[in-house]
Amino acid sequence: KNVRRHEKALMDADKYLRTHLTEDVDLEKLAKDSGLHPTYFHKLYTAAFSGHTPAENLMRYRIRRAWQYLRDDNMPMAEIARLCGFSSQSYFCRTFKKYTSQTPSQYRQGLRNRRRRVAGDDSH
User: Fold this and answer.
1) Which long-range contacts (CB under 8 A, 24 or more apart) does 65-68 make?
2) Structure confidence by residue, pLDDT tens digits, 28-74
3) Helices (H) and strands (E) in the chain, counts
4) pLDDT at 122 (0 to 100)
5) How far apart are alpha carbons 1 and 112 in whole angstroms?
6) Cα(88)–Cα(43) distance, rounded to whole angstroms?
């Protein structure tokens, strides 16, 4: 019931997370900008987004963006980390593995292997 009452503020906050994922997002400020007390905002946001906190969703959005960049074989990991809002390449790699069970390099290698198989299948 309270989630519905504040749905627009919560959706706006989530949109902000998705569009500012390269920045160091101040979640307390985001809550206040939504017109809600930070603790209440956190509770409502988590209820509205299937149990995911604002910080968890921000990280999930960063990982999704990384997946897109990893498709480009030529883009260096450090650049991908920076473009996805990570403070360092090592933090990016640790976080990516935590969320996907593989390192960014392993993910990229899997993409290369699939491309080779597809290319090999098409040549027959």
Assistant:
1) 65/21, 66/92, 66/96, 66/104, 67/107
2) 999 999 999 999 999 999 999 999 999 999 999 999 999 999 998 88
3) 8, 0
4) 55
5) 47
6) 30
Q: What is the pTM of this model?
A: 0.87
**Angle made by CA atoms 120, 123, 124, in degrees to the nearest 5:** 105
Q: What angle do CA 72, 105, 95 make, to 5 degrees?
A: 105
The length of the chain is: 124
- Tens digits of residue pLDDT in 99-118: 999 999 999 999 989 888 88
> What CA–CA distance (Å, rounded) separates 24 from 108?
26
CA distance 77 to 52: 27
Region at 101 (left for phi over 0; alpha for psi -120 to 50; beta for the rest): left
For residues 34 and 18, give the distance between their C-alpha atoms in angstroms, rounded to a whole number. 15
Q: What is the pLDDT of residue 105?
A: 95
Question: Can you give the C-alpha Rg of the chain in angstroms?
Answer: 18
CB under 8 Å to 59, separation ≥6 — which residues?
95, 99
